[in-house]
Write a structure and sequence with these properties.
Blueprint: E1 2-4, E2 10-14, E3 31-33, E4 42-47, E5 52-56, E6 59-64, E7 67-74, E8 82-94, E9 104-119, E10 122-128, E11 134-140, E12 150-154, E13 158-160, E14 166-168, E15 171-173, E16 177-182, E17 185-189, E18 191-195, E19 200-204, E20 213-216, E21 218-220, E22 236-238
Antiparallel strand pairs: 1-22, 2-8, 3-4, 3-9, 4-5, 5-6, 6-7, 7-12, 8-9, 9-10, 10-11, 11-20, 11-21, 13-14, 14-15, 15-21, 16-17, 16-20, 18-19
Length: 245
């Protein structure tokens, strides 16, 4: 069984700014670096009102209610650098019980997290889109091969909707949007998921290989149930069927 540790109390502390307006920090608007408040395999985490996204080497894990969905990149570089980008002017502080050895202070918060060269000439960037949903772009450099992007999703069920969305249990990976930018204009490229027996890949229409290509899936978590207050689990364990114990 794999355990994910989520701290009991998180406080956000704004840092003084040398100049400019005060930065507004919302609980679900950032990625926090793991400084011991999560399991060792977690590098960064993002919270939403519906669950938590854990970023790990070679993929991510979504916890939404009692469901756990694991997204794993296949054939990706095991040594890809994972780095927070655009650090916020605030930090997170965890105070857990009376044992000060478990407290964590000055935890860095970032707007984005980048996986550099997750495949040759391809980087992956996690961020939150303008509508608040979590997104991860695959940025394909000119001349690089997007067919190298292959992944597996471990969930209780996995189907492709008529609209082209990937339904992984209660979590939806929306039909990918792909595009290129040239001359100040965005040119859409046809994109869709292909479900193979061993891996999921992207089907792409014609595009200009001399320009960068962006493939942009959006992760949509289910609508939360219960009250409006946030409830964070403590000492979570997962069984072989992706159920939280």
């Amino acid at each position: 069984m794999r355990g994910y540790y989520i701290a009991y109390l998180l406080c956000i502390e704004a840092l003084p700014l040398a100049a400019g307006p005060q930065q507004q920090i919302q609980l679900t608007s950032y990625f926090e670096e793991n400084r011991g408040q999560f399991a060792d395999l977690v590098r960064y985490a993002a919270r939403t009102e519906q669950g938590v996204l854990f970023l790990e080497a070679g993929g991510h894990t979504v916890m939404a209610g009692p469901s756990v969905i694991r997204y794993r990149l296949l054939g990706a570089s095991s040594g890809a650098a994972i780095q927070g980008i655009d650090r916020l002017s605030a930090t997170g502080n965890y105070y857990i019980g009376n044992d000060s050895s478990r407290w964590r202070s000055s935890v860095p918060l970032f707007e984005r997290v980048e996986y550099a060269d997750i495949y040759p000439g391809i980087r992956m960037v996690h961020y939150r889109g303008p509508d608040g949903h979590l997104e991860h772009d695959f940025v394909v450099s000119p001349g690089s091969d997007p067919s190298r992007i292959r992944f597996r999703i471990d969930a209780a069920s996995l189907t492709l909707s008529p609209e082209g969305d990937l339904l992984a249990g209660p979590v939806t990976y929306r039909k990918p949007v792909a595009y290129q930018e040239t001359g100040g204009e965005r040119r859409t490229v046809e994109a869709a998921y292909l479900l193979g027996q061993d891996a999921i890949t992207f089907h792409l229409g014609a595009y200009d290989e001399s320009l960068p290509l962006i493939i942009d899936p959006v992760v949509s978590l289910p609508v939360s149930h219960g009250g409006s207050d946030e409830d964070w689990a403590f000492g979570i364990q997962v069984d072989g069927e992706n159920n939280v114990l």
